[in-house]
Amino acid sequence: TLLEFEKYVELMPKDEAGLNGVESCTKAKEWIANPGRYIVNNIIAINSKQSDYRPAYGKSERELFFTSSRESANGTEINTVSGELFSDLFFSQKDRKGQWSTPVPVDGINSAFDEGACSLNSSADIIYFTYCPVVKDQDQGCKIYSSKKETDAWTLPEKIQIFADSSISVGHPCITSDELTLYFVAEVEGGFGGKDIWKITRNTKTSAWNKAENLGEQINTKGDEMYPFTLDNKKLFFSSNYHIGIGGQDIFKAEKDDEGNWVVENMLPPINSNADDFGIVFYKNTKRGFFSSTRKEGRGSDDIYEFKLPNLKFSIKGVVRNSINNMIIPEAIVKLQGNNGTSLEITSDLGGNFNFKLTDNTDYVFIASHKEFLKGKAAESTKGLRKNTVLTITIFMSPIDIPIDLPNIEYDLGSWKLREESKVSLDKLIETLEINDHITIELGSHTDFRGNDESNLTLSQKRAQAVVDYLLSKGIKADRLAARGYGESSPKMITIEMAIDYSFLSSGDMLSEEFINKLTTNEQKNIAHQINRRTEFKVTSTDYKVNAIEFGGED
Hints:
This protein is of the alpha+beta class. It has helices at about 1-10, 15-35, 420-435, 455-475, 495-500, 515, 520-530; strands at about 40, 50-55, 65-70, 90-95, 105, 115-120, 125-130, 145-150, 155, 160, 170-175, 180-185, 195-200, 215, 225-230, 235-240, 250-255, 260-265, 275-280, 290-295, 305-310, 315-320, 335-340, 345, 355-360, 365-370, 375-380, 390-395, 405, 440-445, 480-485, 535-540.
């Protein structure tokens, strides 16, 4: 328990095993509370009351080889290590209804002693397996053998010579899809602890194997690392009783980072449990496969479990609203576009609502259109999401028949040069013009009434033109834009939303010189002046180079 490990660390603060124990207890609690998404099931039709473990695929996902010490194994004697009969390799096949056949021994390979922990090449005509003979008064250990399938029979197995020292025990082979690398497990003096994961490589399928290489301390520890399995020689899966885990042996995944270092991750529950979990295999690059476990719900001491990672479910709930008064916009056409090529279109309901199902790892853009409004745009993404998620968005659309304020368009006193912070708002206007490529607009600039009329008119015209010039520099066509300075001639009328923000103002108030002069404080007057100093745009036509019918116009 955590308390016991903490007491041990107090006595032995530099002992890595104790520190790992504390971290494992802490992480295990977190992982159990937040398990992974895999679905795990016991393969009842395959498992027996004895040990069944280390599954391996045949030529398809409907063929399964595995190790078992069930009563139908060849051996008649008890293995003093396992306490069960010596194990054999077995084979089972799934029929069209998805039912696994009764497992049968693999002919031509099994002996009276232990065979197991096998791996087949992609075409399933070469099998690599562990063989552990027992010779009286001799410690021969285990060796890796291979056999070829010719017609319907396996040839006489041949030993693969890995180490010059024949006393070194090796096992748990895993051949890569290109058949140029063979991973295996060995306990060799000078390793990193107990059993380590090693590999041998060769230049071609027919050339000799090169010298064995230890995978190093990023994979191997002071404990035991076993049952390697690899996908495309890039992702490595293995079991360990020393890396931070939940209990016993856990299954880990390792991938190399950009600097070539292995990054090891626990596979989490429900793949891992507080029992021994090991011997995982995937079917090619899919999200399903098998592994072995001694967890309590099994039929025997070791059972084979199948697992699959269901597809993540993503959807989005959205609503279309008026950007001026926040009212809903019913029956707007909403188009979804994904960077995976997806394109869908629906109509918002009477409550302005719409829904889409989404796929993982995709960026989406949503564009809403309605004949009485400018098109609105929103974006979302499922990239990086690790759980089933319902996203929410609001698409705002501006009425097409009223001027729209451009927020935060600011200039220095008496100047018409745009401040940098103003360009953020103008970039949003550019996006509006891009998705509403059928409109032309007027950019209007307004001043407060301080200063003389003529200078205010001149200044506002130059400010409006500065906005137009910025839009032109970003590629907006000149014949879609017009600049007009209004000076102080068009004071702002307060909207409902503005009245909510400013308690001293009411909806419908016109911020004329007379009205502002009657305000009670200088702060209120300055706010009113600031509201009047604005830049806004209004739509002047809706048929720019586009047939008006396409946008809901009249015939």
